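Entry:
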Amino acid sequence: MHAYLIELLSLMAIFAFAIVSPGADLAMVMRQAIVHGRGQAIITSFGIGAALMVHVSYTILGLGLVISQSIYLFNLVKWLGVAYLLYIGIKALRAGKTDVTAATGDVTTAPRQQQSALRAFTLGFAANALNPKAVFFFLSIFSTVVSAHTPIAIKFSYGLVMASFLILWFIGVSLFMTTPRMRAAFSRASQWIDRTSGVVFIALGIKLATEKAA
C-alpha cells in the first residue's frame, strides 16, 4: 500500500503542473463561465473530467501505445481535435454581445439560445477527449511512474483521483470567473472576450495541426 501511495503522489505532482497550465480546457471553462454562467461552467468541468477517464482507460488497457505508434490513428485523433477547436473558435468570433443581469447574477445573451446541460457537458468532454497530446502525456507518466505490476483496479483509482482533482480545479475556475466583480468586468468587455477566446481556440487548433507524432 505504501508503494501505491508513492505512485499516486508522484502522478499528482506531475499532473498538478499539467492542469494549471493554459490550454483548450481552461479556455473552454472560462468562456462557459463568462457567457453561460457558473452552472454551465461546472457541468463543462465534469465533462472534462469524464474525458480524462477515457484517456486513462485506454492508456491502462494498452490502446494508448497503439495510437502513439500508429500514424493513421494519431492523425485521425489530431485532425478531429483541430476541426473541433477551429469550430468553437469561429463560433466565438461570431458570437453576439453578452449581458450580465445584475439582479440575479445570471449570464444572459439575447441572440443566443439557452445552453442545455448535455451541450455544456459535451463541450468539455470533446475539448479534452479530442486532444492527442493527452495520449502521450498519460502514456508517458503512467509508464514512467506506475509499475507494470500495479493492479489495474489501483491504476483506475489513480485515474479517478486525477479526474476528481481536475474537476475541482475547473469548478474553482468557474466560481472565480462568476464572482460579482468578475461578472461586471466581463460584461463590459464581453465582445472583446468572445473574440479573444475565439482567436485562442483557433490558435490552439493551428498549433495542434502543425504538431507531429513523436
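Residues 44 and 173 are 11 Å apart (CA to CA).
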